[in-house]
Design goal:
seven-stranded mixed β-sheet, mainly beta, 3% helix
Length: 134
């Protein structure tokens, strides 16, 4: 059975930091690209960060560049998202997802998946809520 278990969400003060984890099972972790996506109430899904299969190249949304780091641990089959300098704009439900193929679309070091690309992600976790308090 395929599972993506996201954890690490909670309530954080503005300016604080958090680390989200997503542990995979039931599929070949190393052969899949992993993405963190978030969705705030009333807003569309937003791709936050992506780490590609094999090479583990990383890409970030412009809105979080410099504050967010995506990483993975192959032995633990886990992908992480470290977020610093949290603001109210970061409050959302965060999901992890997996697919075959690279992070896309990329333009040099820029990345910005639309809804169509997100639909290509085969496996999705349940999401973890992040709340930012002022």
């Amino acid at each position: 059975e395929v599972q993506l278990q996201a954890s690490g969400g909670g309530s954080v003060e503005a300016g604080g930091r958090l680390r989200l984890s997503c542990t995979a099972s039931g599929f070949s972790f190393d052969d899949h690209t992993m993405m963190w996506i978030r969705q705030a109430p009333g807003k569309e899904r937003e791709g936050v960060a992506c780490i590609g299969s094999r090479t583990r190249a990383t890409y970030y949304a412009d809105s979080v560049k410099g504050r967010v780091t995506i990483s993975s641990d192959s032995g633990k089959k886990t992908v992480y998202l470290n977020v610093n300098g949290l603001t109210s704009e970061d409050a959302a439900v965060y999901y992890c997802a997996a697919k075959s193929g690279p992070c896309a679309p990329t333009f040099g070091n820029r990345w910005g998946p639309g809804a169509r690309e997100m639909d290509r992600y085969k496996y999705w976790g349940r999401g973890t809520q992040v709340t930012v308090s002022s």
